[in-house]
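Q: Hi! Curious about what YqzN/YkzM domain-containing protein looks like structurally. Here's the sequence.
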Amino acid sequence: MTLDNNEKAPANAGQEASGPRYTLEELKEHAEQLFSVKEEVLAGAFFGTQDKLFTVAEAHTKIEQFMKAKVD
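A: Let's find out. The predicted structure is below.
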């Protein structure tokens, strides 16, 4: 996976449908660079979704939802 300097998570979630798709392992390798989180956070946000491809925007949205989830 090659990442350009300007490849960041988009500001609005409406851009999720387009863009290159990456494996969870590729996203984990660049978690701090792309999402400012450790790869463990990415693993938690994507628990149970192995072997799928995601755009950077989809990953960013999923991480935000995970971080805002209420803990009982």
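A: A fun detail: Confidence is low (pLDDT under 50) at residues 8-16.
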